[in-house]
Every structure is written in C-alpha cells, then in structure tokens.
C-alpha cells in the first residue's frame, strides 16, 4: 500500500504546484516595448496596451469622481428630508426642482457653477504635474441626455475635458457611471431607487443610443484612451455579473463598433475576475478587462492583490488589465506596495479619486475613513431641497482645489511620480 500512497502524494503535490504557478505567475513580465501596426490610438495587443505610436503603455491615473455625479458620502449637497433623505444625482435634481426658492434657470446656473469650480483647468495641470497620464471621467446618462434628447451642454463639457487632457498630455477614459434605469441600484449610479436597465427595453435602447452617440462623436479623438461600458454593473440587485451582463456588454460593443473601430473598449468584471466571460466567446477585439480593488477583507493589501491576479490568471482571459478604481486607505506602505505590484504585473491602475469632501466620513474610525482623494475638502453639505440660490451658490462656489487639503495619496504620488511624466515624451494627444 505504501508504494502506491507515495506516488499519489507526489502527484497531488505536483498538481497543486502547477495550479499555484498558473494562478500566481506574472504572465508577461517582459512584454515587447513596441508593437507592429500602430493605429494612432491606444490599443490592446495580447496582455498589454500600446500607445498611438505602438509603444508600450501603462495608464496610471485618477478618477474624477464626485464631479459630474456627486455621491452622498463625499458630496457637498444633501436633500434634507426630501424623498428618502439620501442624496443621489436623480433625487438631487428632483429636490432642486421641488425647491420653491429655485427656478429652472437658477438650477442650470448652479449646475454650471459647481461643474466649473469643482474641476478647473488648473486641476488637469495638477494631475499632469503629479506624473500621472490618465483621468477616468465618471458621468451618468443625466450628464449627456435629457429624456430621449442629447444634452448639448453636457457634450460640450465633455469636449472641454478632452481638450484639457490634450493640452496637459493626459489620456481620458470615458466611463458611463450610471445608465438610465441603473445597472446596479447603487448611489454612485445616480439612482438607488430602481434596478431597471436589463429588463427594460426602453432603457437598454437608451443606453445603446447613448454609446453610439459617444462613439460617433469621439471616434477620431486619440486623446480618448478607452470607453468604459458600465461602472460596477450587476445582473440583479446585490448579485454580481456574469453571462447576462456580458451579453449586454456584447450589444454595447456592437453598437460602438458600428461607429468606431478605433478605440479600446473596457468591460468591467464586478466584483471578481470569476464574474466575467471570456472575450473569445463574443469575438471581441481591442478590449481590456477592469477590476475595482478595495480591500475590505481581514487580509493584507498584497494578499488581496495576489488574489485578484490569481483569479484573473485562472480565467485565462488573455487581455490587458485596467484597475479602474482602487484605494489603499491611510497606510503609505500599502499605497507603495500596490503601485509596485501593479507595475510588476503590467496592469494599468487608476485610483479613486482626485478630490472628495471628507465632512461626512472624517469621524469614522475604520480604515476607509481617510485618503479617499488626492485632495480633500471639509465642507458641510448644503440642503438643496430648501436652501436659497445664494446659500447653494456659496457652498458650490467654494469647492475648488485651492480650498482642499493634500492627503497622503498626494504625498505618495509626488514622491513616486512627480517630475517623471508617464505620458510619452513630446506627444500631445
């Protein structure tokens, strides 16, 4: 019996070793520095990204969260007791319209004030000066549409963002953070009251039309690195993605490709790599997969990152990875270890987020209470359901970065990247 047991143990150990090697290996530690067939646009080739000249590229950047779509936990706005009393973008619009002190013209002026103040030309220069090369621009359908009509002013503001990126040598990722009906029923989609995208043909059609409009408008814009189809989608409330979600991704992919063959398309696996479907099933080309990594488990930051890479390798997607959101909380060593890990893995990485308002979360004692933004405001939110125009304007006019404090994240980026720009030398997009 013993001679039989020993070979069985050896085989088992060998199989485990092979499994661990496949899962935890760094699959492309020495990628080619150049790729053939440069297109003028960021594109995927194998496991890597290449810029418009065919040079190896890693997108290293930051989200522009809390700008086009405020989130209640870091917003400068509240809705008082209106509705559920929880601020979302949709509820905020409803609350302002129900406020007898505000006219439609007042609301439009206040929106422009907030958008023009929260992110300005100087902010794009600051991001570039930190040595980053990319911003992920988070918007919802409300940014670009009004009912079934496209909002001219919304697209003009997005044009301005892209122009500022071009001036400062930055790439832009266009991220649909909230589709009509909501793809996840989370506050950051702008709507926490319904989950009505996938089962609603009108909302699906609206999302397809929106992406076709975006693709047609920016198909020749090389400053745009990629289209991020849907932020953190679910296939059902509180249920992660899978085949149903990726089938809809395929519809979005086809809608975009009907207008634009140039741009990289990002599909998010939410929340783990195992919730994705292989791009080979759909015949997709020039795509990347994205994960959002927030370590809330009782494990180390590195263990969390290795876990994600193991699952990604196990699935064998054979596409580049873009970590579209991540945070390492208030420990500098975890920020530095994370950056080192992403660099070794060849993954692009975009932290959450550029600027926050810490007023509502600063007294929390858990580890997520600090360092959500590179810069942090500390402003009591204004109740937009009852405040006057002047009261709202006073708060919304004070949200410039000059009024914010630098966080630990800013220190990390200044130490690690500032002075060594990540964008290709001399290349303006």
Mean pLDDT across all residues, rounded? 91
**Radius of gyration, in angstroms, nearest whole number:** 22 Å
3D shape: globular
**Strands in their spatial order, largest beta sheet:** 4-6-9-10-11-12-13-14
For the sheet with most strands, the description reads: 8 strands, parallel, barrel
DSSP, total strands? 18
Secondary-structure class: alpha/beta
Spell out the helices and strands N to C: HEEEEEHHHEHEEHEHEHEEHEHEEEEHEH
Helical percentage: 25-40%
What percent of residues are in strands?
15-25%
Low-confidence stretches: 420-429
Q: What's the end-to-end separation, in Å? A: 70 Å
Assembly type: single chain
Total number of helices:
12
């Amino acid at each position: 019996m013993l001679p039989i047991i020993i070979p069985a143990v050896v085989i088992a150990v060998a199989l485990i070793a092979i499994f661990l090697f496949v899962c935890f290996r760094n699959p492309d530690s020495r990628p080619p520095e150049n790729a053939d067939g440069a297109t003028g646009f960021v594109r995927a080739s194998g496991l890597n990204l290449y810029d418009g000249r065919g040079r190896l590229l890693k997108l290293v950047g930051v989200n522009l969260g809390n700008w086009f779509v405020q989130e209640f936990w870091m917003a400068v706005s509240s809705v008082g007791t209106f509705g559920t009393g929880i601020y979302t973008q949709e509820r905020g619009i409803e609350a302002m319209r129900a406020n007898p002190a505000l006219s439609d013209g007042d609301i439009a002026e206040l929106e422009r004030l907030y958008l023009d103040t929260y992110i300005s030309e100087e902010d794009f220069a600051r991001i570039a000066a930190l040595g980053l090369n990319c911003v992920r621009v988070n918007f919802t359908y409300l940014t670009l549409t009004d009912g079934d009509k496209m909002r001219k002013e919304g697209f003009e503001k997005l044009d301005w963002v892209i122009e500022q990126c071009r001036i400062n040598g930055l790439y832009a990722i266009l991220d649909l953070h909230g589709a009509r009906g909501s793809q996840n029923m989370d506050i950051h989609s702008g709507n926490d009251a319904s989950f009505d995208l996938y089962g609603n043909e009108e909302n699906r059609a609206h999302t397809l039309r929106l992406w076709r409009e975006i693709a047609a408008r920016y198909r020749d814009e090389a400053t745009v690195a990629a289209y991020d189809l849907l932020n953190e989608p679910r296939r059902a409330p509180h249920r992660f993605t899978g085949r149903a979600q990726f089938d809809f991704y395929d519809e979005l992919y086809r809608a975009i490709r009907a207008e634009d063959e140039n741009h990289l398309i990002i599909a998010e696996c939410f929340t783990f790599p195992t919730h994705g479907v292989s791009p080979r099933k759909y015949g997709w080309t020039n795509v990347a997969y994205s994960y959002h990594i927030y370590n809330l488990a009782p494990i180390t930051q590195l263990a969390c990152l290795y876990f994600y890479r193991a699952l990604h390798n196990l699935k064998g997607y054979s596409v580049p990875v873009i970590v579209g959101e991540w945070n390492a909380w208030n420990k500098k060593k975890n920020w530095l270890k994370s950056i080192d890990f992403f660099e070794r893995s060849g993954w692009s990485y975009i932290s959450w987020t550029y600027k926050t308002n810490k007023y509502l979360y600063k007294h929390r004692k858990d580890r997520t209470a600090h360092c959500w933004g590179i810069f942090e405001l500390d402003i009591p939110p204004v109740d937009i359901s009852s405040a006057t125009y002047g009261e709202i304007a006073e708060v919304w006019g004070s949200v410039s970065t000059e009024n914010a404090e630098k966080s630990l994240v800013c220190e990390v980026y200044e130490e690690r990247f500032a002075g060594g720009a990540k964008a290709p030398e001399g290349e303006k997009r």
